[in-house]
Design a protein that fits this description.
The chain is α+β, with helices and mostly antiparallel strands. It has four domains: about 1-35 and about 195-225; about 40-190, Jelly Rolls (Sandwich), CATH 2.60.120; about 300-675, no CATH class; about 720-849, no CATH class. β21 and β22 (about 770) form a beta hairpin. The termini are far apart.
Length: about 850
């Protein structure tokens, strides 16, 4: 028996050593491969001929130049454009086509990065099969260009020798050729001094994945025994957690199957099999539940808590009526992306990777949850909002339970009152029906804390990964949360040597949760091709901004830096906006009170250090990462600050102030925040932030030095009045298919009356409101498309096709009389009409020819 154990032990050591050697070897190999770079050589004309012709690349235009490949790897095309500057918008697109006209490669570059009259490389990598293709062609065109660039074409005896025939909009351009350069390359080891940043990040991520896999392998071989593996299958805590994850996965696939059944997208057979896995896990968990344990005891069903039912009911009643507004601004971008992900999902990894990352964020987890609703109620927004409502209700229940048994031991009634205060935070409540990824940061974090409360390591790993794959800000939250946890674990091993400290940490299940999160991020970075795709950071742009760049671009730098005015503004959003100064004052006053009186009530608060760490890292990131200063980005900190303040209020001030008074004060605070969600009554917020005239009172603009009145207005539910106001105007004007609406330039007006980003809106006359376009309803004349005419056409006096509605919103402070006086030269203009609702007013005129 002893010899057998010794042999087994030696075998385990040998396997662990082999795993370590293989991991290190693979890491070194990855490091070596990452040091290779494609070295390119450019072939083009040395000088630009004097005799040349410019061809414009307007929307729909293209230039196609044939050429003979001279090497095996084409690494980019040098283009020369004119009429471009740093103010240009849109992209130049370069496609490489084989001799049969099939696209074999594509590259893009923003027009703002192309200097006029200078060769600029559009990079890509295309393998040139010269044996099968006697010639190739390169096709150039622009997308979303507001200023039309031109491209240079010269006589064929003066262009590059590799060029063949040239076509402009498929018409042969005489005996001429395109001024273009061809970059051919080969692989060479250059190390990392001159290596691109994204390659460095990818290499680092690959090495980290290999080493983490090795650590996990060593741990499994060294730690687990056959009896332990068998015990896992009979552990109801493990099976119940797997069941929850299984139901989430199964629910996603089931809703996807229902959505795709009437489409041409084939449903793989494995999908149907996977849907039954949650059922099997449920049956196994149910068996373990009713099966007596070793002591003959069975699991008990949890008792129904009436306060939980009240919390859920209030959550639903206060949020369902808010479903009626149209998604706009960033929420329109996110919903449009969700709709596109729903349409294009075909059960492949490629469809997930290409469409689940919304607005260049790592929103894989967010999209996963929201698509369950979008699959069930496609193109109606309702499904997404129902998912958000369900997730919010669950989060509020978890908060209530953690008040009762995790952070402290509050009486159930007081815990319910505190939960209502959290529920009615204007930013949290007001954005609960505004489709955005910042909202789910706090939901996933609450789920993570609750999983730790219940000792559910598997669910902790799941919600950790959900946070990391929601938005980059989640990385900071997770880092702050777990850094505090590791510090606590390290402190617990006080007095032990370093080796025992490390062993003690790695024997903790939560540490393996952290490793799972790191593993997920490194895998994401490998597929992403860099640190993150947010504004290109970690790929081609710098993560850090210089003083000069900050002074020049302000909040547009989208990088880390020190910007005092920005720091002050962000701190005001976090600690002042929408009565946030109240919990801030409670926290500061508590700190002073404890220091002066040595009160020890705070010692009865437990398990908040991770929450404080996450908040600290979030606030630090918010003030040093300079980007658009939207108050919506602070939903996470808003909830956490209130949670901390309420706990301190009860445990530190409770012995000083009666609990009845605290409950009454919280009820009053909740009432104030309910009002603030619709009407700005907070005097300090009104004094600190910009106030705009809505026609009925003021609306706050909380971005920094912004005249773009879109997301800057999303700081409570007040912004939503605009949709019903626009609908009311169209109803009073009797909108139908024969009328049209003036479309203001997006740089002058952000009311976006005609679309939810890429999804057009139509007019439902029966409902008297704008809805997402439905081609079937339009065909049956139950819905009319919104006919738009650009403001520039109206100002130029171009003919109208029917009655045209021109509207003015008061907070843009336009000179209506001047506009109307100018338009009377071309059209008949009606008298001024005004519509209003609970949030504001607008005026409009009817123009006729």
């Amino acid at each position: 028996m002893g010899n057998g154990s010794l042999a087994t032990g030696n075998l385990r050591k040998i396997i662990c050593i082999l795993i370590g050697i293989i991991s290190i070897a693979l890491g070194i190999f990855c490091w070596y491969k990452g040091g290779f770079m494609t070295v390119s050589e450019s072939y083009k004309v040395d000088e630009i001929p004097i005799h040349n012709t410019l061809y414009l690349l307007d929307r729909g235009d293209n230039v196609r130049q044939g050429f003979q490949a001279r090497d095996e790897l084409l690494t980019g095309i040098d283009v020369m454009l004119v009429n471009t500057s740093s103010e240009s918008s849109g992209e130049i697109v370069v496609q490489v086509l084989d001799m049969w006209g099939e696209v074999v490669g594509e590259g893009r570059r923003p027009l703002a990065e192309i200097e006029s009259g200078v060769f600029t490389t559009v990079p890509f990598q295309v393998e040139m099969n010269r044996e099968l293709n006697e010639e190739y062609s390169v096709c150039l065109f622009t997308e979303n260009a507001t200023v039309i660039p031109g491209i240079v074409i010269v006589p064929d005896d003066e262009d590059f020798e590799d060029n063949l025939l040239c076509y402009y909009n498929e018409d042969l351009v005489g005996d001429s050729g395109l001024i273009v350069g061809f970059n051919y390359g080969y692989e060479k080891f250059v190390g990392y001094e001159y290596q691109e940043k994204n390659i460095i990040w990818i290499t680092a991520a690959k090495i980290a994945v290999i080493l983490l896999s090795g650590i996990v392998g060593v741990f499994v071989v060294h730690r687990f025994k056959k009896e332990q593996i068998q015990g896992i299958f009979y552990d109801i805590r493990i099976s119940s957690q797997l069941m929850i994850i299984g139901f989430l996965m199964g629910g996603f696939l089931f809703s996807a199957v229902l959505n795709k059944m009437l489409t041409d997208i084939p449903i793989p057979i494995w999908v149907y099999g996977f849907i039954f896995i949650p059922l099997l896990l449920y049956l196994w968990t149910a068996y373990l539940f009713i099966k007596p344990d070793g002591n003959g005891k069975k699991e008990k069903l949890p008792r129904v808590d009436i306060f939980v039912l009240i919390i859920v009911l209030i959550c639903i009643v206060t949020r369902l009526p808010m479903f009626s507004h149209t998604q706009r601004w960033d929420s329109a971008v996110y919903y449009s992306g969700l709709h596109g992900a729903s349409v294009n999902f075909d059960f492949t990894f490629e469809s997930i990777w290409n469409y689940f990352r919304l607005a260049s964020h790592p929103t894989l987890s967010y999209t996963f949850f929201m698509l369950i609703g979008e699959f069930l109620f496609p193109a109606k927004v309702t499904g997404v909002l129902l998912v958000m409502l369900f997730m919010t209700a669950v989060a509020l229940v978890f908060i209530y339970k953690m008040f009762c048994g995790y952070w402290g031991h509050l009486p159930r009634f007081m815990a319910m009152v505190f939960t209502f205060v959290i529920s009615f935070i204007p930013l949290f409540w007001g954005t609960s029906t505004y489709v955005n990824v910042d909202y789910t940061l706090i939901l996933f974090f609450i789920y993570l804390m609750y999983a730790e409360y219940k000792g559910q390591a598997i669910m902790m790993a799941f919600w950790t990964i959900a946070l990391l794959l929601n938005k980059e800000t989640g990385w900071m939250i997770v880092a702050g949360y777990y850094m505090i946890y590791l510090l606590r674990q390290w402190k617990k091993t006080k007095g032990a040597n370093f080796g025992l400290k490390v062993k003690g940490i790695f024997s903790n299940k939560v540490v393996w949760v952290i490793l799972a999160g790191l593993f997920a991020i490194f895998i994401y970075m490998i597929f992403q091709g860099g640190l993150t795709g947010w504004y290109g950071k970690g790929t081609t742009s710098s993560l850090f901004a210089s003083r000069e760049a900050i002074a020049d671009k302000g909040v547009l730098v989208n990088a880390f830096g020190i910007y005092p005015a920005y720091i002050a503004h962000r701190l005001a959003q976090i600690f002042v906006l929408n009565f946030m100064w109240i919990p801030t004052v409670i926290i500061i006053a508590t700190a002073v009170f404890v220091i002066v009186t040595h009160a020890d009530g705070w010692k009865r608060i437990h398990n908040i250090s991770g929450m404080i760490g996450a908040l600290a890292m979030f606030v630090l990131f918010s003030v040093v990462y300079i980007t658009a200063a939207l108050s919506r980005y602070t939903i996470f900190s808003t909830v956490i600050v209130w949670l901390l303040a309420l706990l301190l209020l009860y445990y530190v001030w409770g012995p000083v102030i009666s609990k009845v008074k605290i409950a009454g004060a919280c009820a009053f605070l909740a009432l104030l925040m309910v009002i603030q969600n619709f009407v700005y009554i907070d005097p300090i917020s009104n004094a600190v932030f910009d106030r705009l005239d809505a026609g009925k009172g003021k609306i706050l603009s909380t971005d920094m030095n912004s005249a773009y009145y879109g997301d800057t207005l999303v700081n409570s539910y007040r912004y939503s009045y605009l949709d019903k106001l626009l609908d009311k105007m169209l109803a009073e004007a009797g909108y139908n298919e024969n009328k049209q609406i003036v479309l203001w330039s997006s740089s002058e007006d952000q009311s976006y009356i005609s679309s939810v980003y890429a999804i057009p809106l139509g007019w439902d006359g029966n409902k008297g409101e704008r809805v997402l376009i439905d081609e079937k309803a339009i065909a049956e004349q139950e819905m009319y498309p919104l006919n738009m005419v650009p403001m520039e056409h109206i100002q130029a006096g171009l003919p109208l096709s029917g009655e045209t509605i021109l509207y003015f919103l008061p907070y843009y402070e336009r000179d209506e009389e001047a506009y109307i006086a100018a338009l009377r030269e071309y059209y008949h203009v009606s008298d001024r009409k005004e519509v209003s609702n609970w949030g504001g007013t607008l005026s409009y005129y009817i123009l006729t020819q």
